[in-house]
Model the fold of this input.
Amino acid sequence: MLSRERLEEYRRMTPGERLALSLQAMREAWPYLLMGPPEVVDRRFEAIRRENDARNKALLERWAKAENGQIG
Done:
């Protein structure tokens, strides 16, 4: 969990600053995604795909409910 100070720091950032921070984190993490035997890397990316698919499905279901007036 982030401290209140850190959260306030992020809130004061411009969208461009937050994007730069995100891109930096991605650049630093990318090599580690590719480390290990091919089977491990494949499992890692499959887990990422599953998480993204679940998130996308939930979003689409929420939009469908909103279009049907089921969400206030």
Remarks:
- The chain has a mean pLDDT of 93.
